[in-house]
Amino acid sequence: MSTPTQEHKASDEGQVLADPTAYSDEPRLHAALTNLRANEPVAWVDNAPYRPFWAITKHADIMAIERENNLFVSGPRPLLMPADAEDLLQAQQDAGIGLRTLIHMDDPHHRDVRKIGADWFRPKAMRALKLRVDELARRYVDRMRDIGPECDFVTDIAVNYPLYVILSLLGLPEEDFPRMLQLTQEMFGGDDAEHQRGGTPEDMLAVLMDFFTYFASLTASRRAHPTDDLASAIANGLIDGEPMSDMDTASYYVIVASAGHDTTKDGISGGLRALIDYPDQLARLRDDPALMPTAVEEMIRWTTPVKEFMRTATADTEVRGVPIAQGESVYLAYVSGNRDEEIFDEPFRFDVSRDPNKHLSFGYGVHFCLGAALARMEMNSLFTELVPRLESIELAGPPELSATTFVGGLKHLPIRYSVR
């Protein structure tokens, strides 16, 4: 993968975005992002082992770039990865055996592939799934009651509930859920010592190959014996009248199973931590359950599970007057956009009644998150079940955030509580 040779002055504050540990240190991260928004909203970041990029930290600029999806494209660099990992992935894709999900694609191919699964996330499908989601919400609040008065909310509840939802949608058997949990944690935990399989690009490739092996068998089964589930829709999906390649099919499963699980886990666990940190907001939500939809949106803004995506300029252009050369990449800092003082009144205040709430946590434009409606429904169902039954709650130890540059949130949330 080539890198533009134009010289730029590197931003000191911007280096935080190329440091996975910064996302496990929120005061440090937000101090740097606040400074960038005010003084350097388009900042050049050059910090090995990553290739350089322009950090975009203002909400309006992020939205403008997302709208210009022909000028700023996902390929070949849809997210921040070390240079050697980018090179390995590109070589695998060139050989036809690399991960190529919706986040790696651009229109028109992206649009055609997205259509294959889109019906499963529309309102009609969500209504049909809601009984299962509500049932699982009750199951996991009951589990909190049964294992109390203390638990690690992340490992005991938050990682399991959305995994069961998304794998139920795919139609996978419950005995396969532990395997999927391990693989999704390894995929998104590549920067975190606790969850990574190893620290090399080859280790990440091994995780992907384990995913592919599992889903190749699933594809063969669903093509031979179609069923009424999302896995069947993916296995039998057609592009221009032809089945998707085996790798594109497996990649579709991977993004649904992993992104549909891990991001929601982060929203749920971070949302509960916010209610603990702001007991007045928990009391408001308990007293007025009609606030739940806006509370869920605020939890999603507050946690911002997907930290960034990247885009590459297809022509010379500029952002906020700063020249961006063809071939240079921009880093869309959603975490920063969701704290933009020009968009959000008191952005560092957690407010369950915040409205409007124009957060960027699901992206914007053609790459708006396919599973946004499902994530909202899962969070609504869990907190609708939990909040009325929650008699008391407090931290039982320090929360721990994962080190990441892409998807992440709490990896441990020890709590002491009473649930009816």
Automatic annotation (TrEMBL):
Known cofactor(s): heme
Keyword Ribosomal protein among UniProt keywords: no
Coiled-coil intervals, chain numbering: none
InterPro entries found in the cross-reference section: Cyt_P450, Cyt_P450_B, Cyt_P450_CS, Cyt_P450_sf
Sorted UniProt keywords: Heme, Iron, Metal-binding, Monooxygenase, Oxidoreductase
The keyword Metal-binding is assigned to this record: yes
Family (UniProt): Belongs to the cytochrome P450 family.
Protein name: Cytochrome P450
